[in-house]
Structure formats: C-alpha cells, structure tokens
Amino acid sequence: MAPARWFPAPACALLLLLLPLARAATPAKSPSSSSSSAVFQLNGDVYPTGHYYVTMNIGDPAKPYFLDIDTGSDLTWLQCDAPCQSCNKVPHPLYKPTKNKLVPCAASICTTLHSAQSPNKKCAVPQQCDYQIKYTDSASSLGVLVTDNFTLPLRNSSSVRPSFTFGCGYDQQVGKNGVVQATTDGLLGLGKGSVSLVSQLKVLGITKNVLGHCLSTNGGGFLFFGDNVVPTSRATWVPMVRSTSGNYYSPGSGTLYFDRRSLGVKPMEVVFDSGSTYTYFAAQPYQATVSALKAGLSKSLQQVSDPSLPLCWKGQKVFKSVSDVKNDFKSLFLSFVKNSVLEIPPENYLIVTKNGNACLGILDGSAAKLTFNIIGDITMQDQLIIYDNERGQLGWIRGSCSRSTKSIMSSFP
Ligand SMILES: *[C@@H]1O[C@H](CO)[C@@H](O)[C@H](O)[C@H]1NC(C)=O
Ligand SMILES: *[C@@H]1O[C@H](CO)[C@@H](O)[C@H](O)[C@H]1NC(C)=O
C-alpha cells in the first residue's frame, strides 16, 4: 500500500500553485453558454487496484493511456520515452514526444511553474521547460512539459481534439513501499491550479471549470467536466475554503459523529482527494474513530492481522463483500457549515480483502506523516462528487455509480 500515493507533499505543493498563466498566451474564446460537457468512463477500484483511472487518447495518431484521476494535484504527466531514465513497467508503450511538442522555457506556463519553486528554478536550455513533482509518499516525477492533442468525448456523442500541456516524465521514483509494476501510465491532474486539465479546458472555452466523479463500489464509474451535467438542486453544497494545507479542494472543517453521537474531537479540516485510495484522519480523530468502532462491535467479530491494512476483523464465516459485514458497523458523519452533512456509512470506510476479512479503510494520517485529513476514494464511492470552481463550492449526491453513464445521468436529475 502506498499511502496518499499521488498527493503532493506540502513543500512541493507550492510548485503547483501556478496561477495566472496560459490565459495570456492562449486567447480565450468567450466562455459562453455554448460550453459543453465531457464524460469519461472510469476503470479501477479501491481494492485490490487501489485507484480509479480514465483511458485518454493522446497524440497524433491518438494512442491510449491509463491515467489515475487525482483531484489532489494539478499537473498531468505520463511516463515518457524522452528517452526514459527511470520508468516503471506501465500498461502501454511509453509516450514518445517529438521536438515540436516541447513547451519552450519562455512560455508563460513554464515561467509560472518555475517562479513557484524556491529557489527559483531556471531552464537548463531555452527549448524546454523542466518540472519536478514530489508526492507525500515520496514518490516523484521529473520531466519536461509538452503540448499535444487528446480526444475529449463530449456528452452529445461527438468529440473534439483540443491540445493541452502536460508533463513528459522521464524519471519516476516510487515511494519506499511503492510497486514497480504500475497499473497506470501516468496521472491526470484535476486540482484547482491553472495547469490542471479542467482549468486548461476552461481557458480554451470548451467546458466550464467544473468537474465531478462517481466512483462505484463495484469498480468503474465515470468522470465529467462541465456544468450542464450537474443536478445542482439535489446536491448538498458546501463552500470551498482556502485550505490551510495547500491549494486543495476543501469543504472546511467538519465535526465528527459516530452513530449520531459527537466523538468530542475538535472540528477537523478535510480535503477531497481522488488520488488517495483510502481516507486519512489525524491522530486524535483516528483514535476516537477506532475506539468508537471497537466499542460497538459484536462479539462475533475478532481482530485479525491481514497484510492489506493495519486494522482488520474476521467473522465466523469468510466475508465475500462489505454487504456481509456492514450491519455490524455504524455510520460516521462529518457535519460542515449550514448543517451540510457528509454521511460515511460502513461501505465508505470498510473493504473486504482476498482473505475474507473486513478492514478499516480510514488510516492514521500521522503514521503517513500527513498534517491534514484526506477524504479518499473509499469515502467518495457511490456518490456524485462535484467540484465547482466557477461558484467555489463542493457538492455531493448519494446514488449508485455502477450503472451505465447514461442511466446514471438520468438518475441524478
Ligand atoms: C456537440 O456539442 C458541440 C459543442 O457544444 C457542438 O459543436 C457539436 O456540434 C455538437 N454535436 C452534435 C452531434 O450535436
Ligand atoms: C490540436 O490542437 C490544436 C490547438 O487546440 C488545434 O489547432 C488542432 O487542430 C488540433 N489537432 C487536431 C488533429 O485536432
């Protein structure tokens, strides 16, 4: 398990606060009512895959790449044959850039990226823009920025091939516990910063800066960009706050309840991060959660050690899925401003492992050296989670994400 694998370390998060850039370089078409929406199918799951990913078709001719969707960082990158110095084994042949795809040092997107680094980074040569990102589990990617076209499936069944800027990563280091066989070719950066894919699509006048995902507990789901898929009226909305931990999507501080009783821990600031498989709580809320869970458990469950996660239980019979065990557990709740509540039922904090044990998918963030609380994939499953950067708010609607995209769209009216 690689904790918070793709979550940028706070020190390097600065690097991703790339603000007012491409707008100047790319004359924006008037962002108008003609903005459309795009929808991608997702693959992957919380367990055993550990992430959800899209297939993006990039280049000319277009070739497919699996990208881990990450709302906790901004820069998209692919493992890349530039040539590659250190790459993992990836599912597809490495992306191979041509010289005319390189983003030059003088490009505004490069200047912004570099000025956010301290000490200010300079280009080694004027023809290219170097980048380096580190994530909280000490994984990293080093490379150069390139611009290439990709296929964007519009909701009305047509598609466009806009260009976007991303990292061509020729030197990847995995975290200490990292695996060398990767299940994805790279990462899709969907954070708030201006290098994020959604920010780039907004500048191009293609979609509004709104995205959302629906991650199924059965695996798969969908990801969308744009604002005319969003069923605004049914969502629970919370204003995004400026997170104290960085430029992350945060609904602010929530009060934690278990089985409708306050756990008596001080309100905790959380961030929504689809790049984190599991949920991470700081030491105090973590301990309070574990104590409350254990106190409420029936005698038929016994704590057991399982290689998958730190805290697991076995039952009298082997569990096949979370539905076999969820009645033994109660819901957690996080209550934000205006009594907006995020319910966390057992399905959103337990997994059942290959060994038939149930394990807690909320982890102790202090053990992973995290200084803030992360709501990861496990807790966002079977909800439409909406990140509305236009109106500065986060929303959620509970519903199954396992059906086809079309039927899901019509069931979130
Ligand atoms: C789909 O939407 C785009 C952008 O709004 C538009 O240009 C295109 O003509 C539409 N295609 C179809 C088949 O309706
Ligand atoms: C690639 O993107 C550029 C800029 O968005 C555009 O002008 C060009 O037509 C695109 N190429 C293809 C093959 O669609």
Automatic annotation (TrEMBL):
Residues 1-24 form the signal peptide. Keywords: Aspartyl protease, Hydrolase, Protease, Repeat, Signal. GO terms for biological process: proteolysis. One of its GO terms (molecular function) is aspartic-type endopeptidase activity. SUPFAM superfamilies: Acid proteases. The active site is at D70, D273. It comes from the Eukaryota. Residues 52-397 form the Peptidase A1 domain. Belongs to the peptidase A1 family. PANTHER family: ASPARTIC PROTEINASE ASP1, ASPARTYL PROTEASES. This is Aspartic proteinase Asp1. It comes from Brachypodium distachyon. The gene is LOC100828431.
